[in-house]
Structure formats: structure tokens, C-alpha cells
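Lab notes, practical 5.
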Amino acid sequence: MDHLIISEDDMVKESAEFSKVYPILIHEIDHIERVRGKLNDFQLMLAVSRAKDSMGVLGWERRQTVNSILEKYAQIYREYDRESADEWVFITFGYRVDSGYETEAETMAETTSAHPQEEIDNDVDVSSRMQEVSNLIVMKEAELLQLYREFYLLSQRS
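Output from the prediction step:
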């Protein structure tokens, strides 16, 4: 398969689309790091895959460019560390997403309310709340996938 050569200028041109998927990538990485520590290749691949899945409909060239950006981030993460990868994103695109290291109890307290209808009525921007809930679902799915994989590997040993 031919490797597509994408310049950093092309990457910067797709920064708007990348800015949409980058928070999802960071959210996935935060969650897995909180549970397991530094991501292994499989976990990193899973986080990148989740971010790629969140992309809207794009042309092939644009999708390839955003995929290359995500792969470059993963390569820096693997070779150095997350801080270096985040710094590369900041230097190249000017984006910085705060890590969401909150406890599981805090996450659950945010998502469950004694009066969910009041919470929705009081929310000025329902769209942003929907995005938060969607991100939480993605995070829980990733955790469940990790648990299933661990269960499967343990069952194979028995």
C-alpha cells in the first residue's frame, strides 16, 4: 500500500476538523490512563479509532489528512509521552485541552441528577449537554471493551 505523504501545511489546513476530534481523543486517553496508566498500543489504537469514528462525512483526502494527524499524535505518544504529544498539538495547531481527571464518583454525580427534567429545563445549551452525555457513553464503552478483553484473555487461560 502506498503511504500518503502529507505536509504539515496540509495538516494545518485541516485543523478545523481536527479541533472537533481532538477533545474526543483526549477524553478517551484521560479515561484509559485514569484506569490503567500509560496506554499500550492496543489502548492507544482504540482511543484513536474512537476519535476517527466521530468524524463527520469528509472527502477522502481530508479524512486521510485528519487520520495522519491522529497517527502522528499516537506516534509521538508512543515514542515519548503524552505531554510531548499534547505539546506537538499545541505548537502545530494551537489547541490545548485540559485533562479531565475526575473521579468516577464525580462523573456519576454529574450525569445523574435527582431531578433530570429540571436539569434539562435549566440547561441553556441542550446540545452541549448531549455532547457531554455522548462522550460519557463513548468513555464507558471503551472501559467495557477493556474489561471484556481482559475477561476473554483470562477465560482463555483456564
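Observations recorded by the TA: DSSP finds eight helices and no strands in the chain. Residues 8-103 form one domain.
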